[in-house]
Amino acid sequence: MSFLSHLFARVLPRTLILLAATVVMTIALVQWAPGYWSDVRELDAQTGSSVREALEQQRSNHPGAFVAAREWIHSALRGDLGTSRQFAIPVSALLAERSTVSLRLLVTALVTGWSASCALAVCLALVNKRGMAALCMVPAACLLAMPVGALSVLCFVTGSGGPALVMALLIGARELQFFQRLLNDTLREPHFLYLHAAGVPARRILLAFALPQLLSQFLALLLRSILTSVGLLIPVEVIFDLPGLGQLAWSATMNRDMPVLLSVTMIFACILVLFGTIADFRMKPANP
Amino acid sequence: MRRPDALWALGLLLLLAATLVARPHGSWSAQDRAQLLAPPSTTHPAGTDSLGRDRLSRMSMACLLSLSGSAVAACLTILLAVLVGGWIGLAPSYARAPVLLLCDLLLCLPLLFLFLVVRSTLPLNLPPWRSALITLGLFALLSWPSGARLIAARVSEARTSAWMLQARAAGIPATRLLCSFVVPYLFPLLIAEFLTCLPLFIIAEANLGLLGLGVGEPLPSWGGLLRELDNSAVLATSYWSLLPLASLMLVMGLLQSISLRKESA
User: Fold this and answer.
1) Considering the entire predicted model, what is its pTM?
2) Nearest CB to B105; choose among A18, A147, A231
3) SS3 of B25, please?
4) Which end of chain B, N or C, is more open, meaning fewer C-beta atoms within 10 Å of its C-beta?
5) What is the pLDDT at residue A287?
6) Quick one: DSSP state of residue B50?
7) Cβ atoms B189, B150 nearer than 8 A
8) Is the pLDDT assigned to residue B200 strictly greater than 80?
C-alpha cells in the first residue's frame, strides 16, 4: 500500500474518528463535573423564584454529550469556536493570543535542550571515557528524578531560571540518555569497528558516517520530544504564571469553561496525533 | 549500583520510613502550635512545617504512601493491560476495533494533561483517604493503553508461535497452557511495564499534588509536601523543606537503577 493510499484509507478516517470521540469524551466529562451546572446568580439571595425556575429549565433543556459534540464540531468547522465562559471573549481570539506564547516557549526549549544534549552526546562519543559519561549522566538522572512542577517551583522561587530553561533542562536530560545510547550502539556496529581498526579518526567516523546514518532516528526522536514537551507545558506555565495554552487549559478545567477546554484539548490531540503519525512513518525505514 | 543492591536499598528505605512513622513522636498529623517552622531538635529531627507538624514523620509517611499507593496502582494498570491486551490479541477483528479505538483515544492526549483534566472534574472536597484512592485509581484507569498494546502484540505473537501450536497439538488443557506457558512468556514484559509505571505514577502524583489536585491534607504525600517549596520565606529560613524533594529523588534514582539493570539483563 502506497503512502497516500495508506494515509487516506486508514490514517485519516482513524484520526477523524479519534478527534470526534475526544470531543464527546471531553463534553461528557465536563458536564458530569461538579460545579458545571451551577450559576453565580443562584448564590444571590435576591434572585427570584422565576429566575431560578428559568435557570432550572435551561439546565434541563441542555443537550446531551453527543448532541453538544455534533453542534460544537459543526460550528468549529465554520470557524466559530464559541465564547469563553470565564473571559467572555471569542475562543479563537484567546487561542491566537495564547498559542504564540506557548509556541515561542516550545521552540526555545526544544532548540536549547536539543542543541545542548546533541553537542554533549557527540563530545562524549568523541572523548569515549566512561568516567566522563557517568559524570554527565548523574545530573541528567537527577533532573529526570525531579517532578517538572518541583523544578519549576524551585527555579521560580529562587529566581534562577525561567520556564524555557526548566523545559530545556528536562528535554535535554531526557534526550541526552537516548542520544548517548544511540551513538554507543551505532559505534559498536561491525563496520564502524572495522573503520576504527583501519585507523580512520574517531571524529571522521562520527561526523561522516555515524551521524548521517542516525538522521532518521534523530528526526523520530525530535517528534517524540515535541510530544513530551507539550505535556510539560501545563505545570510550567501554571507555576510561572505564563499566559500560554497550558495555563489556559488549566484555568478552563478548573472553571469548567467548556468551549475553551474543548478547543485546547483538540489542539493537544491534533498535535499528538499528527506528530505521532509522522514519527511512526519516520521510524519505519529506520526500524523495519 | 547493581539491581539487588538498589532493591535492598529501596527495601531498607521503606523500613526506615516505617520505623520513623512508628517512633514515639512520629505522628504525622499532630500539630505543635508552639513550634511553627521550628529548626531541627531532638523531638523533631528535621524541624516542623508551618502548622507545627513533624517534617520527618510526614516525609516518611509520604514515602510509604506514595510508593505503596503507586505500586498498587501500577499492579492494577498491568492487570487492566493484561485483560485488554489479551482481548485485543485473541478476539476477532470486529470485536477488537472498539477496544483499539478506546486505547487510541486515551493515547491521543498527553498523560499529565489527561490526569489533570479528569482529576479536576472529579470532586475535590473529599476526605483525605478517599482523595488518595481516587488519585491513584485514576492513574490505573488511564494508563493501561500503552501496556495493553504491547501485551496484545506479545499475545498474538504467542498465539501464532510454533511452541504454542505444538503445545495445543499435544492436547495440553487451556488452563495449564495459560498458567505454565503464556504467563511465564509474558512475565518479563509485565515486570518491565511495572518498572515503567511505578516512577511515572510517583512523579504524576507529585505534579498533581503541587497543583493542588493530589492527595488531600492532612494526609502527607510527596506532592503535598513539595507544595512547601512554593513559600520562598520557608525555603529561605529552612533548607530542611528540601528534604521531601531529596527523598523523592533518591527513590526515583533507585527505581531508575533497578530499571536499567533489568533492561541490561
Assistant:
1) 0.86
2) A18
3) coil
4) C
5) 43
6) T
7) yes
8) yes
Query: Which positions in chain B touch A265 (Cβ < 8 Å)?
Result: 109, 117
Residue of B nearest to A270 (CA): B108
Residue the block writes with cell 585507523: A199
Residue for grid cell 516557549: A105
| A285 pLDDT more than 50 | no
- Give the position of cell 523523592: B248
What CA–CA distance (Å, rounded) separates A184 from B98?
41
Least Cα separation, residue A273 to chain B (angstroms) = 6
User: Could you give the percent of chain B with pLDDT greater than 90?
Assistant: 21
ipTM above 0.95, yes or no: no
For B125, nearest residue in chain A (alpha carbons): A34
How far apart are alpha carbons A158 and A175 in whole angstroms? 26
